[in-house]
Specification:
heterodimer; A: 249 residues; Rossmann fold; Histidine-containing Protein, Chain: A; 2 domains; four-stranded antiparallel beta sheet; B: mainly alpha; Serine Threonine Protein Phosphatase 5, Tetratricopeptide repeat; 10 helices; 66% helix; ligase activity (chain A); transferase (chain A); kinase activity (chain A); ligase (chain A); kinase (chain A)
Chain lengths: 249, 235
């Protein structure tokens, strides 16, 4: 665990919360992710106690992992992003934050779709992003559907990309499952690390959700384009990753 | 216009405890009715959820009663805060954080051994504000806010007329009851019932009804006074 931002996923169902946590963990192994849900008696619902306990544990682990004597929150950009699935889980998280105001500088509630927001936040946190950036990543996942529709609309591709790309190459997907969750996470994490603006078939390559939504499987030809300082290098790196088949060929 | 010789009507921490214990009783009695109301326009768990929550509250009160605080040290707010955290941990559905926040905000304005009529109004206002802000609802949306809002207005009027604690609670409880009935023709625009749109009209809102029960219990607790059956007064 090296990421400075952790995730707590709150659902009415403990199985749903843990399932989404498992999915996000696979795509962002450096991030501490905890799924919490259900009533104390095991039924569907959310419990203040359970959410408080999960937050406490995650904050403690985060503080233990943070170098120096940082309390694990606030100024150093570390903290916890919380996602809730529906009504009462969101209300319960809000109530937890109201009960202990000292939490509010280290714990933030994201307004985001549960699965997409968790995955996007986890992948962003994996790259070492700070609390605000991870929160924004979760929140922007709600715009993913519109973004994908825009790129898939006829003749829309060019209109959405800003300016002429400084690097552009095509590459054929080689592994059978293509850009499924794990490879999409690898590519988006690499792109975030490179710092250039990269698109793959017109979608933002730093967005794991948009990459997955391409549905690119074996044999598909993808256009990789980039702008920015290290555009050519970024294109070459991404092409190499895709061409390498992500260890699945 | 406080009347002499009615010391047992003082709204202290023991009253708050009687209020909460009585609430648990009336919610248990009305469990079927609340669930039936919720089955018509919600997800049918309001009665079950509140009953589970208040039973847990009573269990916590029993634990606390085993080691009572020195007389006069326990505040009304102490009792209400225990209700708040317990409901939020055990109810499960949206009623948990909604009622929980109502009791929590009420606890914040009642951190003293005894409350007078203006303080009773402040408690009601804080509860209303808690429910409205947590649920992001306003009056007329066929929610528990309708009952809390009516209770605050009536309580304020009673206190403004120089009414006693009991007068304020009676006005609030009666207004909440009327407002709950008044939700029947409304079309829900917040909460689960809003999914039904116009089909929500013709049914009473279960949250408004349970609010009326809670406030009715507050009045009953003030009228009954301590009884020998009360574990605290027996101590």
């Amino acid at each position: 665990m090296t990421a400075r931002v952790a995730l707590v996923l709150v659902s009415h169902s403990v199985e749903l919360a843990r399932g989404v946590a498992e999915l996000a963990e696979q795509m962002a192994p450096d991030v501490l992710i905890r799924g919490v849900g259900g009533r104390p008696d095991g039924g569907l619902g959310t419990s203040l106690d359970a959410v408080q306990k999960a937050l406490e544990e995650v904050l403690t682990t985060l503080a233990d992992n943070t170098p120096g004597d940082s309390p694990g929150g606030g100024a150093d950009g570390s903290g916890v992003v919380v996602l809730g699935d529906l009504g009462s889980s969101v209300l319960t998280v809000e109530a937890v934050l109201e009960l202990d105001e000292s939490l509010t500088e280290r714990v933030v509630l994201a307004r985001a779709p549960f699965v997409e927001g968790a995955v996007a936040a986890a992948v962003t946190a994996h790259g070492g992003a700070d609390l605000g950036t991870v929160l924004e990543s979760a929140a922007s996942s709600i715009r993913m559907f519109a973004a994908i529709e825009a790129t898939q609309a006829p003749e829309a591709g060019e209109a959405t990309s800003g300016g002429e790309p400084e690097g552009s190459r095509t590459v054929t997907v080689r592994n059978p499952l293509g850009l499924h969750a794990r490879p999409a996470a690898l590519v988006s994490r690499k792109v975030a690390e490179l710092g250039a603006t990269v698109t793959i078939d017109g979608v933002d390559a730093s967005s794991v959700l948009q990459l997955m939504a391409l549905g690119a499987t074996q044999g598909r030809e993808l256009r990789v384009e980039a702008t920015g300082e290290r555009a050519a290098e970024a294109v070459a790196t991404v092409v190499e990753m895709i061409d390498g088949g992500f260890g699945e060929v | 216009m406080k009347q002499e010789g009615l010391k047992d009507m003082a709204l202290d921490a023991d009253w708050a405890e009687r209020w909460v214990r009585r609430t648990a009783e009336v919610i248990a009695d009305a469990k079927g009715e609340l669930t039936e109301l919720d089955r018509q326009i919600g997800d049918g768990d309001h009665g079950e959820n509140l009953d589970r929550g208040f039973k847990a509250v009573v269990a916590r009160l029993d634990d606390v009663a085993a080691e009572p605080a020195p007389p006069g040290e326990r505040t009304v707010g102490d009792v209400l805060k225990l209700v708040a955290t317990t409901l939020m941990s055990t109810v499960g559905g949206a009623a948990g954080p909604l009622y929980g926040t109502a009791y929590l905000r009420a606890a914040k304005v009642s951190g003293r051994p005894q409350i007078d009529p203006p303080a009773v109004v402040a408690v009601l206002e804080a509860a209303l504000e808690g429910v409205a802000s947590r649920g992001k609802a306003t009056v007329g949306e066929k929610t528990m806010v309708d009952a809390w809002h009516a209770a605050v207005e009536a309580g304020e009027a009673a206190a403004g007329d120089g009414g006693s604690e009991v007068d304020v609670l009676r006005a609030a409880a009666e207004a909440a009851d009327t407002a709950a009935t008044g939700t029947i023709p409304l079309i829900a625009t917040k909460g689960r019932a809003s999914y039904l749109g116009e089909r929500s009209a013709g049914h009473e809102d279960p949250g408004a009804r349970s609010t009326a029960l809670v406030l009715g219990a507050a009045l009953a607790a003030a009228l009954s006074g301590p009884t020998p059956a009360d574990p605290r007064s027996a101590a």
